[in-house]
Amino acid sequence: MVLRAPILAAVLAVAIAAPAAPAHADQPLADNPLVLADNPVDPFRPADKPVVLSEARRAESKDPFRPVLDWASIVGRYSGVTAQAGAWLAQIPELATTFATRLQVQVRDLAAGSQSMLARLVLLVPMAPDLRPLLASPVPGVESSGFGWRRDPIHRGNKFHKGTDFRADRGTPVYAAGAGLVAFTGRQRGYGNVIYVDHGGGLVTRYAHLARIEVHAGAAIDAGGRIGQVGSTGRTTGPHLHFEVRIEGRAVDPTLAVHVAELQRTDLFAAQVAGLGLAPEAQARRVDRHDPVRPRTADTGKRPERRGAPARDRTLW
Length: 317
Known about the structure:
alpha+beta, two-stranded antiparallel sheet, 30% helix
């Protein structure tokens, strides 16, 4: 009994120190969730989150943790991004042109304000407005009536004509006289279909009696750019273009304005002298050289074409 006690104590110590066998140690190798395709178990992976892969995933890659790439989806997404980038790049020239025109108009507005302020400060002769944007003829046609007092062909009275008329066939293209922004398009009483183009610095041109408007408000256009077609809408006696030049809202003689614009590009002193004719007092006394004011007399002309209808005047309005 004395010899057996130490032996029994040693056996008990060895039994206590030995680790317990795992609960799944007796499971077959194929059914053990911790064994993946004959690979040893990752000792650093938590035992409560076993990794079980499907047979299809095992067949696709030897490495079960490598992500599977869907190349068809990647190519489709790349094609969509490429198409969108191409559309954006195609709009760059148009956006650049619009930005440049808007910047030019704003700079001219600032320059006009500074010029007017300088003239008032030094008490000099008022400087002629900057008309250099006027570069092109609005329509290649024959001028039929001009700016100033003339005989109204509709009411047979004397009336001030605030623009220049260009006789042309219906549908003849109409072009912008200078670069600028389209400020208004639509129909107005008397004008019919009309377009306003803002050139900056208080300079605006109007194109009236159009048969068709081919631009929209806010569009940036270049000098000589097509904007519409000649027509006979509004208060007219025949197809023609009614063209106006306005400075700070005041109508001036378009022919004189274009002449001053040409001088401003070549001879500033001559332009300053010619620009004196654009003053409001001088413009108010202008008389249309095509059809000067005539005293009203009783009609003793030919018989009208229709019974009770007035005789038609060849002058356009």
